[in-house]
Specification:
- The protein has 142 residues and is α+β, with helices and mostly antiparallel strands.
- The chain is built from four helices and four strands; from the N terminus they run H-H-H-H-E-E-E-E.
- The protein has a four-stranded antiparallel beta sheet, with helices on one face.
- A hairpin with a 4-residue loop joins strand 2 and strand 3.
- The longest helix has 20 residues.
């Protein structure tokens, strides 16, 4: 069990960092299933690749893990979505929430989108859907 210690610390530290980034910056819309599976696999890969001095294979695994994390990031943060909506629409009393979206087979696709609601300067209620996949803004019915 002692051989797994450093791998466990690296994997758990990275997992906690990803969970904090997902909660604080992306408001839990980041697809984390595949990165978490690879972080669990990292514990075993760390022990076996480094014990056998297979630094190239371990480096490829870590590079692959980094690419998976990069491609799992949503295209837009909640703050960027709010700024994008406020620059296009004159809204007062703005509220931003997240909503789940239908998922496809793609493990990198975000699991949610941002829903921005507010009252326009003309007094009508607007509800806008901001895609975390593309960053597009769509008007929806209130």
């Amino acid at each position: 069990m002692k051989d797994y210690g450093v791998g466990v610390i690296l994997s758990v530290g990275t997992a906690i960092l990803l969970l904090v980034i997902n909660a604080e910056i992306y408001q839990n819309v980041m697809a984390l299933a595949l990165p978490m599976i690879l972080l669990a696999l990292h514990v075993v890969a760390y022990k076996y690749y480094l014990r056998e001095k297979r630094y190239g294979a371990y480096s490829c695994f870590v590079l692959f893990l980094g690419l998976v994390i990069f491609f799992s990031l949503p295209a837009i943060t909640q703050q960027q979505a709010e700024t994008k909506v406020l620059s296009s629409y004159d809204l007062e009393q703005v509220a931003v929430t997240t909503v789940p979206v239908l998922r496809s087979w793609n493990p990198f696709e975000p699991v949610g989108a941002y829903l921005v609601s507010g009252i326009s300067t003309s007094g009508e209620e607007l509800v806008l859907f901001v895609s975390t996949k593309t960053g597009e803004v769509h008007e929806t019915n209130p």
